[in-house]
UniProtKB/TrEMBL annotation:
Organism: Hemibagrus wyckioides
Biological-process GO terms, alphabetical: regulation of cytokine production; regulation of leukocyte cell-cell adhesion; regulation of T cell activation; T cell receptor signaling pathway
Principal location listed in the UniProt entry: membrane
GO cellular component labels: external side of plasma membrane
Protein name: Ig-like domain-containing protein
Subcellular location as annotated: Membrane
Domain (Ig-like) ranges: 21-108
Amino acid sequence: MATARNEFKLIGPDWERYNRSAVTLSCRLSPEISAVNMEIRWFKETDCVCVYKNREVTEGRGYRGRVSLFTQELERGNVSLQLRDYRGSDDGYYLCQVTDGDRTEEITKMQKKFMDKASWIYWSMALCSGGERENNLTLLFFPHPPLDKDFWDHQSDREWTEDERKKMEESVLLTEHSTDEIKEKFRNEWRDSGLSTNQEKKQYGGKTSNIGWRIV
């Protein structure tokens, strides 16, 4: 039987540990189909981190200049979130939602800066003393002491309450509304200072040219 056009699910590594200046919460579509024309939302708890819609990325308040999607890889179904300038407040649960038509899929990720070396030694010894299974898990995921910039994330089975989801929707609306206000402010300043009053000018060989802002 043929697969429906918008049939997909979100997948990510069960565990991932990395050391880099920019943290990536890995997530992709399965099967590997294009997400270019889909809507992508990332949340930190109930706060909107970013929204991809109509081929544009809008950053949430508190995340401007710090987050991005791999837009060049959306064609291959990569909807991962990259987070720069990591802060302690960035630890926590993240929800990724991808919508295509009337179908929405989501996945929850737990992101955390790794523990310090002393805690790693204590935690590893405690697990290793628990038996073969715990020992194997320790060696697999945490075989070496953490570095200063070690992070880890894993897929979570956290359930989101109806109240939390309501706050998420409100956060998205606030993010989109704030962006519209900023664009409108620039439009007004551009119109008042350049197009309408003709006050912003430069001389080029006896000629004058208006200076304006291009609103994307």
